[in-house]
Fold:
Amino acid sequence: MAHAHNPQADALLDKEFKVLDHGIVRLVDYMGSDSAIVQAARVSYGEGTKQVTQDRGLIRYLLRHKHTTPFEMVEFKFHIKLPIFVARQWIRHRSANVNEYSGRYSVMREEFFVPDAAEIRYQSTVNKQGRSTEEVPDELKKRVLEYLVESQKEAYAKYSEFVEDGLARELARINLPLSLYTEWYWKIDLHNLFHFLRLRIDPHAQKEIQEYGLVMADIVKTVCPVAFEAFMDTMSTRSVFPVLRWQF
Ligand SMILES: Cc1cc2nc3c(=O)[nH]c(=O)nc-3n(C[C@H](O)[C@H](O)[C@H](O)COP(=O)(O)OP(=O)(O)OC[C@H]3O[C@@H](n4cnc5c(N)ncnc54)[C@H](O)[C@@H]3O)c2cc1C
Structure:
């Protein structure tokens, strides 16, 4: 079979999709599409696939029966810019290949995440890892935002001062906060990307990582729409996605 060509997916390559205040998701490259899943599955089923003539039916059958290896034939390479506290959660997904910006080699840029005022919430009383829907008074929001911005500026000013004093970058950076942005290339196959999305788009995941997951879900939808539709159908109703943001 010839190299799969998907003009809609090709049109996404190298576009920067904004996430949070300074973050990005960029699809650097991809390999395969729905047809790569079908192609790989037919190697294992051979004549058996005669019963499942439609590609869509085969893909849905595979996902329903957890025959997941054909989904590993599709790969995505992303360039992601994200706050370090999001990166700490993200890196737990061991099934990807990662190469991150080096704060030992390069000077960290002065880019910090500051939440929108509307996102400043009390601790949830029903979810130990989540936010309450109860409104926080403006005065408290203001205090939080002022503190975040001031302390970020102060930490970065000291960092810059020590770098200019000739201190090793690997030491100068150690007191920079988790709100600082980092970047990485992140390559993963579709099977493991579905696993990542299932966990990170779920409402129990931290809001900021959900934001990245939603953009990536839209990209997956464009690269392999049939597999994505099948994946969506496996999601529990509890975690039905908010409407996807970008319609490419
Ligand atoms: C809402 C939420 C809350 C969380 N809270 C916490 C927390 O409080 N503390 C915390 O430490 N983490 C927490 N995590 C992280 C979580 O425990 C996982 O580390 C993370 O979701 C990555 O999942 P994974 O290991 O399945 O993914 P991957 O690392 O991508 O692995 C994919 C799959 O490969 C298999 N696998 C990979 N490595 C191994 C291995 N060494 N042995 C056996 N099987 C393996 C497993 O089947 C695994 O599911 C949380 C995650 C979520 C989504």
Remarks:
- The longest strand covers residues 23-31.
